[in-house]
Specification:
It contains 13 helices and 16 strands. By secondary structure, the chain is an alpha/beta fold. The protein has two domains: 4-138 and 303-333, NAD(P)-binding Rossmann-like Domain (Rossmann fold); 141-298, 2-Layer Sandwich (Dihydrodipicolinate Reductase, domain 2), CATH 3.30.360. The chain has an eight-stranded parallel beta sheet, with helices on both faces. Strand 7 (120-121), helix 7 (123-126) and strand 8 (135-138) form a beta-alpha-beta unit. Helix 12 crosses helix 13 (322-333). The longest helix has 17 residues, at 141-157. The two termini are 24 Å apart. The chain binds NADPH dihydro-nicotinamide-adenine-dinucleotide phosphate (NDP) and 1,3-bisphosphoglyceric acid. NADPH dihydro-nicotinamide-adenine-dinucleotide phosphate binds at residues 9-15, 34-37, 86-89, 91, 109-112, 140-141, 172, 300-301, 304.
Length: 335
């Protein structure tokens, strides 16, 4: 089988995970990854066997650091069928003309606006809509986690209203530049947070608003989700619907915090402690009339990674059935 040629522009928190997940599939392969700085991440990418590309103006720095380059970012893009842009939020927009000039398909992550790609993706919610598309945005980690729970509930019970409060991890574990250290920060103060409108970019008919707070932790986000539905239901019904979703995992056996979830991922031998699934506490599912609540934790560094693989498969038309793609992606990465 000829594999789809995938480039990762921006080998950071998301990019390095996307590269490994793509490489684990049998219908796509990584032809290159990019960095701007010749630091430890660039050295490890080279050690792993990835061809490394950088802006032409930075090639001297890589040479000085003894990290070999395979070429410039433009040259990497020319070799690819599809580029996954994992540059920091707001940077990826400037790369669109480069992708258009090279005639390659492109995926952006949730730090970019919906309008840049014109299609926002979540595998369970709208896989088929991405079939054959040239430009797609995979929605952000929190938005992905919310789509994964709202879509199946809407399909089975009809969602009337969703209200969510998100406690957002302040920054990623490797990031030493950002805070907060001793504060809780409304993020943003002006409501709603971007997540509600972003859900509507995937599921336009859902009545949803969201509020988010940044808290001094790096491990995971935590959501308090409140949904009103159109159909009578019990906690067992909600439990059954969530159980049918392969990217939802129930937390039990003494797991009462995000710290223990990450320890579970370590104990399971997951790469980089990644927890690709929404982590829901079934005990928290509480129904009153047609309204219910629950808690879920979201591992921000990894949740969008299987979704990105599915987006590639849809855009390259390697699989027309979303459920089959989800199954294939999960199996290859060990989910
Ligand atoms: N981190 C998270 O929790 C999540 C992030 N996202 C989204 O994913 C995207 C990427 O975020 P994240 O992985 O955290 O970002 P990181 O800062 O961890 O990584 C960004 C990468 O892009 C590279 N880079 C920076 N500038 C350029 C450039 N001009 N051209 C090419 N490469 C560049 C950096 O390389 P170098 O260091 O060499 O400069 C780095 O490897 C954003 O849209 C973000 O919103 C989505 C879900 C979760
Ligand atoms: O996609 C994310 O969060 P989001 O879903 O709240 O936008 C990631 O955790 C990145 O968030 P950041 O913009 O705080 O680095």
């Amino acid at each position: 089988m000829v594999k789809a040629k995938i480039a990762v522009n921006g080998y950071g928190t998301i990019g390095k995970r996307v590269a490994d997940a793509v490489q684990a599939q049998d219908d796509m392969e990584i032809i290159g990854v990019s960095k701007t700085k010749p630091n430890y991440e660039a050295a490890v990418a080279h050690q792993k066997g990835y061809d490394l590309f950088a802006p032409a103006s930075n090639s001297g720095a890589f040479e000085k650091a003894g990290i070999p380059l395979a070429g410039t970012i433009e040259e990497m893009v020319e070799k690819a069928d599809l580029v996954v842009d994992c540059t920091p939020g707001g940077i990826g927009e400037a790369n669109k003309p480069m992708y258009e000039k090279a005639g390659v398909k492109a995926i952006w992550q949730g730090g970019e606006d919906h309008e840049l790609a014109g299609f926002s993706f979540n595998a369970a919610s709208n896989y088929e809509g991405a079939l054959g598309r040239d430009l797609v945005r995979v929605v952000s980690c929190n938005t992905t986690g919310l789509c994964r729970v709202i879509y199946p509930i809407d399909r089975e019970l009809g969602v009337k209203k969703v209200r969510v409060t998100l406690a957002r991890r302040a920054t990623d574990p490797n990031d030493i530049k950002k805070g907060p250290i001793n504060a809780i920060v409304p993020d943003p103060i002006k409501l709603p947070s971007h997540h509600g409108p972003d859900i509507k970019s995937v599921l336009p008919h859902i009545n949803i608003t969201t509020a988010a707070l940044k808290i001094p932790t790096t491990l995971m986000h935590l959501h308090t989700v409140n949904m009103e539905v159109n159909t009578d239901c019990t906690a067992e019904d909600i439990n059954r619907i969530f159980s049918s979703q392969s990217r939802i995992r129930f937390m039990s056996q003494g797991i009462n915090s995000t710290a223990e979830i990450i320890e579970l991922a370590r104990d399971m031998g997951r790469p980089r402690n990644d927890m690709w699934e929404n982590c829901i506490w079934p005990e928290s599912i509480t129904v009153h009339e047609r309204e219910f609540y629950f808690f879920q934790a979201i591992h921000q560094e990894s949740i969008v990674v299987p979704e990105t693989v599915d987006a590639i498969r849809a855009m390259m038309e390697l699989e027309s059935d979303g459920a089959k793609s989800i199954q294939k992606t999960n199996k290859a990465i060990g989910l």
